[in-house]
Design brief:
By secondary structure, this protein is mainly α. It is built from 13 helices and no strands. It has helices at 20-43, 45-70, 80-107, 111-137, 148-161, 163-189, 194-201, 203-215, 226-234, 245-271, 289-315, 317-327, 329-342.
């Protein structure tokens, strides 16, 4: 079919979900997970951050790759410009992002030069997303997203004024994208649970508010050691100097734990038609044996990378953490085209 769409060529979940018992189970699971994560993040922010990244960072990337492969249509048809822009833009932007520190060291950049380069990269990301939005708005079902271009100009202006703050915003917004994916999946596959899910989502800002209320005046975390310094810096302690680093790390770790829970548990239960390692149900796999082998190869390589990251964390946790969060930009950007297609 020449106009193959991601909206119809998807897996059908193995289990029908929509009963009162399912709603109660969803509510209990969401609320208990969020409350426990909030408590652990609030009381043990550094330890909780170290443990969650070690255990879940790699596996959740693998599960997310499996999900995105399931949402890729077998034939692009009229979606070709959209998916070409998405698939080419992601590795190019990530390659530039990874190369920036090396270029800064090689060129002995000043602080102003580094901030300008960071702002230019942020601007390229905004422009890429805006092009995707424009292309998506012209696809079925059509969307009236006329405000996308002027909004992009405002965001580009903002990133040149505050390049570091713009990047930090991505750190905190990205975990919430998983909740958005789950909302769309429930709407498509299990609409009876969507209202329950949305009511439960109110616990997230409530618990974030509790963290900010309890930890606003908390003493800064001891960050003399290399790993602790990296964790607090990633949470924005060097950018938001007037905010407690304890609060920042707790907030970020809490949101990340919700992000991991969605990708490792909720999305597979809601969306997958088979065990994650089985690929025959994927639209791309239906194109033939070569495609099935290619997809299987991608997942095998992904599993090897997960094992590699675990080995790296054991051998040198700080260095591996730095490498992971550089590579993680790949899945941050890769989510954008697929999320737009779900809107």
């Amino acid at each position: 079919m020449a106009t193959a769409s991601i909206d119809v060529q998807v897996e059908t979940p193995r289990v029908a979900i929509g009963s009162v018992a399912a709603a109660a189970t969803l509510s209990t699971a969401m609320l208990s997970t969020a409350i426990v994560a909030c408590l652990l993040a609030g009381y043990f922010p550094l330890v909780f951050s170290i443990v969650t990244v070690f255990l879940f960072a790699g596996p959740h990337n693998w599960m997310e790759a499996r999900y995105l492969l399931a949402r890729m249509p077998a034939r692009w048809g009229r979606l070709r410009p959209y998916f070409l822009l998405g698939t080419i833009g992601v590795p190019m932007l990530v390659a530039i992002y990874a190369a920036l520190p090396w270029m800064a060291d090689a060129g002995n950049w000043t602080d102003d030069a580094w901030l300008s380069a960071l702002a230019a990269w942020n601007s390229a990301v905004i422009a890429w997303v805006t092009l995707l939005v424009v292309l998506r708005s012209r696809q079925a079902p059509r969307r009236d997203w006329a405000a996308a271009v002027p909004t992009a100009f405002m965001l580009i202006t903002a990133t040149w004024l505050w390049p570091l703050q713009f990047g930090l915003a991505l750190v905190y917004v990205h975990p919430l994208m998983a909740l958005w994916f789950l909302d769309r999946e429930l709407g498509r596959q299990h609409s009876a649970l969507r209202s329950t899910y949305r009511r439960c989502l109110w616990v997230v800002p409530l618990l974030v508010g509790v963290l900010w209320w309890r930890l606003a005046d908390a003493p800064a975390l001891a960050s003399d050691a290399g790993l602790a310094a990296r964790i607090t810096e990633h949470a924005g302690a060097t950018i938001l100097g007037g905010v407690s680093s304890h609060l920042l790390v707790a907030t970020h770790t809490f949101l990340e734990m919700l992000h991991y829970g969605v990708w490792l548990v909720a999305i597979p239960l809601v969306s997958f038609a088979a065990a994650p390692w089985q690929v025959r149900t994927l639209p791309l796999a239906r194109r033939g044996r070569a495609w099935r082998w290619a997809i299987g190869g991608v997942l095998v390589i992904g599993a090897m990378l997960v094992l590699g990251f675990w080995a790296g964390f054991i051998a040198d946790y700080p260095a591996t953490r730095d490498l992971y969060f550089t590579v993680a930009m790949l899945h941050v950007l890769a989510e954008v085209p697929f999320l737009l297609r779900l809107l």
